[in-house]
Amino acid sequence: MTLDFFPSRTLTFYLAKTFIVRILAVLVMLVVILQMLDLLTESADILAYPGNNEAQLWTYVTLRVPQLVSRFLPYSVLLATIITLATLNQNSEVIAMKSAGLSAHQILAPLLATAAIVSSVSFVFNERVVTHATATLKAWNAVDYGPIPKQSVVHSNVYLNNGADILYAALVSGSGNDIVMKNVTFYERDANGMITRELRSPSATYAAPGWLLKSPVMFDVQSADTRELGEDLLIARGLKPRQIDLNSVDADAQPLSELSASISSLRAAGRPTAELEGKWWHKISGPLSAILMPLLGAVAGFGLARSGQLFVRAVIGMALGFTYFVVDNAALAMGSFGGYPPFLSAWAPFFLFLLVGETVLIRTEE
Questions:
Q1: Its membrane topology, per UniProt (predicted)?
Q2: How many degrees, rounded to 5, is the angle at CA 70 between CA 137 and CA 273?
Q3: pTM higher than 0.85, yes or no?
Q4: Alpha carbons 224 and 126: distance in angstroms, whole number
């Protein structure tokens, strides 16, 4: 019986149903509260654009909610684990299951299986919904919540180097020679890296070679003089459309297949790819973190409820779970800076806390 992780069909479905209901309840609560707070922050900027009204607020909500669901689903699994197991412990259901011969791993098995299903759904949801919502929201934010270009390829907040000079575009749409830039700023710098002139333009198009600024406004740093040039100006002759494609890769807005192609292109061009490779691996390890939560929060479900240690155990389980998220973010940041290999930065926290959770469970309950 100890090798059978699902000895009772009835008990398995009871625990799984209880667990999934609490996951959904906690997730809805977190998303609703956080969405309301976020909307209070962004609503003024959305309505500031001429013509925007309540419809645009709802559009923002539909784009922001998938991001919140993706980010806080593992937290919801952790909190649901603690609530579920603490309730079972408080009602002496854990004692009844252990009296029937079930081990701690057998009690947790339905929760782990449910968490595995949640992880799979989360991965598909991230790939199909969240990446598209993220790309659209970033492009919309780059045009101050105005009309988004209809082109299929849209990038926001793109910085490009043309020798010592820097070209910034709030929005880049299209591809190849048909690329169009919006809200463009071109910084001319001297040999010491100091900005000498700043050119601003509402748009720029590729002129083969160079980029044509429409109705630019020039600011001279030395004289502190600002004036309209009155005619279009050609800049950055050495900057090619291909460089824009390579410099505007956003891992959060690309599914795995597209991100793989972007990494291959960057590697072929001799560009560093460690940060993107780490995020590629994290697209897999991130959703799988939900599987860890029942294991890390399991300490809340065992021990005698009447001993007065139930609250302490719940706090310990919560601390273990939140420590994982802190370590995971820190490792990913270290990987972005080159401190860890990409694979290690994405997977080391997962396997480390898998061992920690197993150790705590075996040493205390098995």
A1: Multi-pass membrane protein
A2: 75
A3: no
A4: 48
Distance from C-alpha of 10 to C-alpha of 28, rounded to nearest angstrom = 27
Residue 287: count of CB within 10 angstroms of its CB: 22
Question: Residue 5 carries which DSSP code?
Answer: S
d(CA 92, CA 111): 18
Dist. CA 111–CA 287, nearest whole Å:
16
CA separation, residue 235 to residues 10, 151, 225, 331 (Å)? 71, 24, 20, 40
> Contact at 8 Å (CB) between 280 and 251?
yes
- Residue 204 in tokens: 């720029």
Share of the chain above pLDDT 70, in %: 93
How does pLDDT run across 217-246, given as a tens digit for each residue? 989 888 888 888 878 888 888 888 777 766
Q: How far apart are the C-alpha atoms of 332 and 74, rounded to whole Å? A: 17
For the cut 60, the answer to whether the pLDDT of residue 253 exceeds it is: yes
Give the pairing of strands 165-173 and 180-189.
antiparallel
Task: Go through the chain and tell me how many residues it has.
Answer: 366
Q: Is 230 exposed, middle or buried (0-12, 13-18, 19+ CB in 10 A)?
A: exposed
CA distance 311 to 308: 7
Can you tell me which residue has the tokens 């490009």? Answer: 160
Kindly list the distances between the CA atom of residue 193 and the CA atoms of 153, 158, 187, in Å, as whole numbers in the listed order. 32, 20, 10
Q: DSSP characters for 215-254? A: S-EEEETTTTEEEE-SS-EEE-TT--HHHHHHH---GGGS
